[in-house]
Design brief:
By secondary structure, the protein is α+β, with helices and mostly antiparallel strands. Helices cover 34% and strands 15% of the residues.
Length: 183
């Protein structure tokens, strides 16, 4: 399980969620181990991700650094800039550098995944989503960006709904909900 660093409110050691599907408790997690992960789509830079373990249920949590997407190597800022350009939100001098071939593939896969989850995410965000014309991925992205920076939206999705833009955290849901949640 990967948890975003900024969703932990800056605490040095993360605390297990109160609605943990396994133990249901709130105990300080213990530093367990670490692993390396690629940063950026090209994968030239590697970072160390600290893992923590719940002392009650022994579930492990990787705390990924700010500005990184869970389970993706593309950074949040770069994803936001490329998606904004793709869907007409970047204007004038705010245009990002052109996407590399690898980044184009990352954006294509991200768009595919988000388009599969649009109805689910719109259902979660409900009236928070501004009404714009259309029902395609461009409409969804423009509506999502009106909520604020992508980083804040990701933190809200994790905190309030135990999900992310690209997938659900089934491990954070009670066992009776895990079967019904789309991947």
């Amino acid at each position: 399980m990967q948890v975003l660093e900024y969703s932990l409110k800056g605490s040095e050691r993360p605390c297990a969620p109160k609605d943990c599907a396994v133990c249901g408790g709130c105990q300080k997690l213990h530093r367990h181990a670490s692993y390396e992960r690629y940063r950026g789509a090209v994968g030239k830079q590697r970072i160390r991700v600290q893992r923590y373990q719940c002392p009650r249920c022994e579930k492990t949590w990787g705390v990924i650094p700010q500005d990184m997407l869970p389970y993706r190597s593309l950074e949040i800022g770069r994803l936001e800039a490329l998606m904004d350009e793709r869907f007409g939100l970047a204007g004038g001098s705010a245009r990002p550098p052109p996407a590399t071939e690898i980044e184009v593939g990352c954006i294509r896969r991200t768009c595919k995944r988000v388009s599969e989850r649009m109805a689910f995410l719109c259902g979660l965000l409900g009236q928070q989503m501004p009404l714009l014309a259309g029902k395609d991925i461009g409409w969804f992205w423009r509506s999502l960006r009106k909520l604020g920076p992508t980083e804040g939206t990701l933190a809200r999705l994790i905190r309030d709904f135990k999900t992310s833009l690209l997938g659900c955290y089934r491990s954070l849901l009670p066992h009776w909900h895990r079967e019904s949640v789309p991947g």
